[in-house]
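Q: My labmate handed me this sequence with no annotations at all. I'd like to see what the chain might look like in three dimensions before we decide whether it's worth expressing. Could you predict it?
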Amino acid sequence: MIFGVDYYPEQWTEKDWDEDLALMKEMGLSSVRLAEFAWGLIEPKEGKFDFSLFDAILDKIQSAGMTAILGTPTATFPPWLFKKHPEIVQVSKDGITRIIGTRRQASFSSIAFRKATEKIVTAMVKHYAKHPAVIGWQIDNEPGHEGSDLDYSPLAESNFRKWLKAKYKNITSLNKRWGNVFWGVIYTDWSEIPIPGAHVASNFNPAMIQDYYRFQSDELISYIRLQADIIRKYNSNIPITTNLFPSPFLPVTDMYEMFKFMDYTSWDNYPVWGNQKEPFPHPFVSATLQYSRGLKNKSFTIMEQFSGVQGHDTLGYLPPPGQIGLWLLQAVVNGAEQIYFFRYRTARFGQEQLCYGILDHGKKKTHKYFELKDTIQKIREFAEDVDSVMYPADVAVIHDIENARNYKHQPLTDGLKFDPAPFAKVGYDIEMATWFAGTNILNVNTHYLPSRADIDLTKYKLIILPLYTMFEESFVSKLHEYVENGGSLVIGYRAGIKDQDHWMVEEAVPGKFAKLAGVEVHKFEAIGNDTTSLRMGLWRLKGKKFCEVLEPTTAKVVAKYSDSEKFYKGTAAVTMNQYGKGRVYYVGTSLSPESMPIFFRKVCKDIGIPFQFLGRSIERHVRHGKKYNYQITMNHSMKSKWVGFKRFSPYGFEITKLKK
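A: Here is what I predict for the chain of 660 residues:
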């Protein structure tokens, strides 16, 4: 287990370096991340490289008995490159051309940018390939963040047309599969196809928009792959990663495909940001951590772990004593085996002077320093013993990149509209996290996995599949086989009705799942952020966003609509169908966060999955270790809580050793 910190030696003097490294070691840190924004320092003029600053700090790191992960510095490029190639920047959907002075402004479709990237990355990797302090490479920094995986520049438009030609081979095929006969948009030449940007009538063909998102994903992935290939060529013995903001922050890029050619996943963990009045609920944070673990189905790294109040231009919530330490433990419990805190000392100048770190603008040891030091000491034995791969789970929630893209441009209801702000309030993955929370709040270990072809469903007693509107035939077949052989499946509303070309099926909702679910849907409505009432036995539930009136064919009714203001009061809202040796639950609405655990309590009881509801703020996991197994209980409340006969202080936790 590695505990480290993000460090920016270029912002401090050499005297500071010695003092900082000593304080890091005293705190229990053994590694640093460096250089992810240093292109202009390393290559101040085209082709003239200067590694002296990072040579000096790496030598000090080695002398201190510490290690480093180096970032390739391509998230920002130097002014000389923009001056020489002003066309390399992106254009926003609204037609605004990016300029120098920010970050993530380069077009991944730019040949000039890719060539400049090859030069800086090659020089840097060759220079540090044999440095004994370097234990890893981070490619770029938060690739795709801040909307940078959506480029509407002339370069992107040109490459989009090439991408379409490679996919469809001829224009007739494209017209047919896009359904261009509608509205008479029949293209006769590839050069006629625009980018689906913001226009007076911006309701472009959804198949076109979906392909544009796929293209943008491929552009970014190929750019990251370019760097990975260089690192492998000159430094093949060092593991590679990149740090990401998962969806909803990156709803376009296929992160599963990106990490196929990397050694491990890295995630930047900010449970609260900017002017938020309160952090995300703890199940949402666990969902993002499990997302990261699930991309490669193994342990991962936190490359930026929240350590102080964060914001670019506004600040908000101050974590009470104990909470940043608890977030650290939560990350380890969910599968992180390397954690780098962002950041060591807060910058006194520049764009991130409001991104507070472990230390503030001065050098005085802070409450954050002591809290994290104390937490590291308390959890180190567990963190180093726990099996970095084995995370047992009976349940898996399946997310799907094609549906993330689909709901971005066709959200169906106001309650699912995507908010491009850094921390969106609604959208595909906010909905997905709500479903994940249904079992997480019952303290059932739950995986969060992509709908990849090689997924082994048989490892799980229960598969949860929300918002699977756009289906892939082979995955549908895999689910049928899983249920027939005894598995249990929960399907969400609007499932199985649209193919990969955006064509709606002729069958009624749930389309490809109609026989499996034993229901048909002929009436439905979007209710946005309003709520409706349901009755499940003695339980009263709430639904939001969308309501389907279920008509069972072979299924049994589990819950009915009970809202007296709805004409469909008394009709089925949730059903269960026996299919082969297994069973399928179909949920025709978006259950509220309070209702999800009640529904999944019934599901777990039905199929024999052990669960424990210990209170809304209590999270419990079971992990396997080399010496012991562990039960970890965390109180995510600023109030004391009793769990059985054990009293947990605010943001307190307990790690209990279990016999193997």
